[in-house]
Design brief:
The chain is 43% helix and 12% strand. It comes from Conyzicola nivalis.
């Protein structure tokens, strides 16, 4: 957009600072002071002129060709996802994405689907990792942080996550990389998250400054469940067609502690709902407890917990 600073320059600067000369076959001089590669070294590796590369870093050239983008990706040793992100920045960002105001709206059919999953913890997040809707089992598995209004990035930078994550640094790096990969840099919600964490967390600015990008598709997360204790769950993400939302599901290997924990939480959830429904219906003749789970939707104003270091 005319008059708006291009995000391409900061990305190129951050990525060349991470590539060491030895990694690309260049000598390291004893008095070398620059972190990573020099501008002229990137230009030479990409086969473009130093003057043209300088214009790219300064945001004075907004339309590099596909060939130049591919050459820069090779020079900076970008993987496929990072190269795609570079191309997106060079092409101007997020054309065709839904408006920011619609990013909290979840299709009713998706909410109905989650409500039917009585033995699968599941929730939906948007591109800034706000939890928009969750089913009863997800709320039982992650009370407060797998429920509508929570934000997964804030949660990862909480003191509880730091204390209990098997590898907190790696988890935090992946979460921030996914935030940058999927969110629109002009989204006010992204700017709010980055601003809050940059001023309140000692590690976030360093991780954000790397400009890493990644799509999170699957993994393992640890949850504490009374009275069982700490349990590792598998999770898998699915893109929801027609939106930028992600469906996050949790699953357990047969015979694993996670399978036992899911069965326990499911029984506890159904019992709580039966008691609630029984109390609401009173002593009406022919009444019976309601056992159908429901999917809770995001509040009008999402909760945005402040991170603690």
């Amino acid at each position: 957009m005319q008059g708006r600073r291009s995000p391409l320059g900061p990305y190129l600067r951050a990525r060349r600072a991470l590539v060491q000369p030895e990694e690309v076959g260049l000598p390291r001089e004893p008095d070398r002071r620059v972190a990573g590669l020099r501008r002229e070294e990137v230009a030479r590796l990409a086969g473009i002129s130093p003057e043209y590369y300088l214009r790219l870093e300064q945001g004075r050239d907004h339309q590099p060709s596909d060939q130049v983008i591919a050459a820069l990706a090779r020079a900076l040793r970008l993987d496929g996802e990072s190269a795609a992100y570079l191309r997106k920045l060079a092409q101007g960002g997020a054309e065709g994405r839904e408006p920011f105001a619609d990013s909290f709206a979840v299709d009713a059919s998706v909410q109905a689907l989650l409500a039917q999953w009585a033995h699968t913890p599941a929730f939906v997040i948007n591109r800034t990792q706000d939890v928009l809707v969750s089913n009863a089992l997800a709320s039982a598995l992650g009370p407060g942080y797998m429920e509508p209004g929570a934000n997964l990035v804030f949660q990862i930078f909480s003191s509880e996550a730091r204390a209990n994550a098997a590898d907190w640094e790696q988890t935090a790096n992946k979460a921030v990389a996914a935030l940058r990969m999927h969110a629109d840099l002009n989204d006010p919600r992204l700017q709010e998250i980055v601003g809050a964490l940059s001023t309140s967390d000692p590690d976030f600015p360093r991780i954000w400054a790397r400009h890493d990008t990644a799509s999170l598709t699957s993994g393992v997360s640890r949850h504490h469940i009374e009275p069982i204790g700490w349990v590792d769950f598998n999770w898998q993400n699915f893109a929801i067609p027609g939106s930028t939302h992600i469906l996050v599901t949790y699953w357990a290997d047969p015979g694993s502690p996670a399978e036992t924990a899911v069965a326990y939480l499911a029984a506890r959830t159904l019992q709580a709902r039966a008691l609630t429904a029984g109390g609401a219906s009173g002593a009406s003749a022919g009444s019976r407890p309601e056992s159908m789970p429901t999917a809770e939707a995001v509040p009008t104003t999402p909760r945005r917990p402040a991170p603690t270091a």
